[in-house]
């Protein structure tokens, strides 16, 4: 994508595109701008606006969770060990 390479692009069980951005050991505030860039790039290129983009990390700070929620970006805390 114009803003860089997202870690994974896949489809969910409903056939919607899902972009996954993995961070380790913790997601920083800057990932919001990064994943929004990927989402906007994808939407502009594909013309589809029903995609999902998810930040995945063992630890996601509460402030980042709030910021992602404002833009309806999903997140998951998953222990990679």
Number of domains: 1
Global shape: globular
**Poorly predicted runs of 5 or more residues:** none
Beta-strand level of the residues, as a percent range? 15-25%
Query: Which class do the helix and strand fractions yield?
Result: alpha/beta
Q: How would you describe the overall organization of this protein?
A:
With 81 residues, the chain is of the alpha/beta class. It has two helices and four strands; from the N terminus they run ββαβαβ. The chain has a single domain, classed as 3-Layer(aba) Sandwich (Trna Endonuclease, Chain: A, domain 1), CATH 3.40.1350. It has helices spanning 31-46, 62-70, and strands spanning 8-11, 17-22, 52-57, 74-77. Strands 1-2-3-4 form a four-stranded mixed sheet, covered by helices on one side. Strand 2, helix 1 (31-46) and strand 3 (52-57) form a beta-alpha-beta unit. It is globular and about 35 Å long. The mean pLDDT is 95.
């Amino acid at each position: 994508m114009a803003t860089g390479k997202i870690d994974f692009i896949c489809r969910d069980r409903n056939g919607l595109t899902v972009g996954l951005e993995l961070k380790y050991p913790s997601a920083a505030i800057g990932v919001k701008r990064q994943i929004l860039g990927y989402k906007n790039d994808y939407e502009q290129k594909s013309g589809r606006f029903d995609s999902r983009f998810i930040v995945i990390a063992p630890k996601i700070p509460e402030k980042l969770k709030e910021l992602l929620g404002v833009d309806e970006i999903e997140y998951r805390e998953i222990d990679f060990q």
